[in-house]
Every structure is written in structure tokens, then in C-alpha cells.
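Structure first, sequence second, as always.
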């Protein structure tokens, strides 16, 4: 199983790893695109006011410009440890035991606006860039959509569980030839109507991702996944349109 996660706006500072090394990142065919986006990001960081406007940063986030300016020289850490926010707090990758972290490294892919797909262990620096950020030149969608989709198509016949937000799906749709399901977190109201959640959907996705890297079972089909959820406390079901629903 491959689990696709969105990134987060917020990231931990620091790290003990050497500066950015493209050769250390998964999906090396994305490296030419990665280098191009990094160059464009650093160029924009030379005009702080313009970067803050384009990245929609308020005065309290002026330090993000410094992060972007130093993105090729700052220390790195594993991607699954770098990101913070609600989803990553629920995933809580730093507290996973050794075997679970190994599975996380194999099973997780995080879709970064700066680096495209990265693996859980991939060493990345702190940065600020979102799926809808505007750099000079082509849009991030034009940069990433086709190459990321091609990488996903090359992952073989394994089941792909897409926990990304719709904005990041747009930066790399899963091809229809891949066995994949987009996950939507829902709740049922007193009126019996199912509704999608916003803030709490991130917590649900993070908890599910943590449980999926903790299990030793090879969940090779959506039926296996739903059956696993029934015994582990995750209410999963398949919608008529093929989306996988997680009810919380």
C-alpha cells in the first residue's frame, strides 16, 4: 500500500541532516523539476515584500522568507518529522517504534509543492510554499501535475490511498490505471445526513495513517482495508463513486 499525504504549511525548524541533496530524495526523475522550483523560490526570496505578497504571508511570518532564501544550505530532517500541524500531530511520526518507522518510510509519500513526491525518510529543509503559491514562470500545477502522475503510475499494482487535500490532488492526479481511492472524512448528523469535515478531517487522516504504518498486515485491496478498519476502530466504507469514506 502507498499512502499519499498532503504537506502542511507549518514545519519544524532545524534538523541534524546535511543540506539539501537531491540524490537523497525518492523519485529521482523529479529532480530536474525540483531544481527548477527551488531556483524560482530562492529568486523570489531576494525580494522579500514580493515573496510575502505572493505567498500570502502576514508580518508575523516574515521569517518564512529567510527559510526560503536558505533552502539549499539549511539543515534537513526526515520529511515525516519535518511537517507539523493537525494531521502530522496525529501521525506523530517521531514516536513510532523502529519497525513502524521503517514501514512509514516505505508506505508514505508526501506531496510537496516544492519537491513533488517525497518519501517519509527523505531529508528535506524547512521551507514555505503552497499548492496555490505563485512563482515566476509556469504555475505549480503545470510544473508538477504530469510528472507526479507519471510517478504514481509507475508504482506497480499496489493499492494507493489518497489522503491529500483536493488542492494537492490537482498537482498530481492519480491516473485511472492505478488502484486508488481518495479518502473523505465524514460525520453523520442528527438528521442522518453524512457531511464532510474540514478541520477534524486532518486529525482523522493522521490517525488513520499512523495506524496503517503500525500494522504488519499487507492490505492489498480496499476490501482488506475496510475489514481491517472494522477490527481496529476505523469506520471505513466505499462510496458509489469509489471514494473511501472514514466516518468519525
Amino acid at each position: 500500500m502507498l499512502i499519499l499525504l498532503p504537506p502542511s504549511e507549518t514545519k519544524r525548524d532545524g534538523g541534524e541532516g546535511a543540506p539539501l541533496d537531491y540524490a537523497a530524495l525518492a523519485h529521482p526523475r523529479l529532480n530536474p523539476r525540483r531544481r527548477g522550483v527551488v531556483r524560482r523560490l530562492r529568486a523570489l526570496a531576494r525580494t522579500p515584500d514580493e515573496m510575502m505578497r505572493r505567498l500570502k504571508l502576514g508580518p508575523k511570518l516574515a521569517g518564512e522568507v529567510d527559510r526560503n532564501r536558505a533552502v539549499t544550505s539549511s539543515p534537513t530532517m526526515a520529511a515525516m518529522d519535518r511537517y507539523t500541524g493537525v494531521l502530522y500531530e496525529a501521525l506523530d511520526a517521531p514516536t513510532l517504534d523502529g519497525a513502524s518507522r521503517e514501514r512509514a518510510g516505505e508506505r508514505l509519500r508526501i506531496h510537496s509543492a516544492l519537491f513533488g513526491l517525497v518519501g517519509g525518510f527523505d531529508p528535506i529543509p524547512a521551507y514555505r510554499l503552497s499548492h496555490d503559491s505563485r512563482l515566476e514562470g509556469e504555475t505549480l500545477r503545470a510544473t508538477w501535475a504530469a510528472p507526479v502522475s507519471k510517478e504514481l503510475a509507475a508504482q506497480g499494482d499496489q493499492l494507493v490511498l489518497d489522503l491529500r487535500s483536493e488542492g494537492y490532488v490537482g498537482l498530481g492526479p492519480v491516473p485511472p490505471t492505478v488502484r486508488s481511492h481518495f479518502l473523505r472524512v465524514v460525520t453523520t448528523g442528527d438528521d442522518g445526513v453524512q457531511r464532510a469535515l474540514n478541520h477534524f478531517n486532518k486529525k482523522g487522516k493522521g490517525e488513520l495513517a499512523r495506524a496503517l504504518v503500525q500494522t504488519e498486515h499487507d492490505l492489498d485491496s480496499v476490501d482488506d482495508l475496510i475489514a481491517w478498519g472494522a477490527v481496529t476502530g476505523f469506520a471505513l466504507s466505499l462510496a458509489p463513486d469509489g471514494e473511501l469514506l472514514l466516518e468519525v
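Margin note: Residues 2-247 form one domain.
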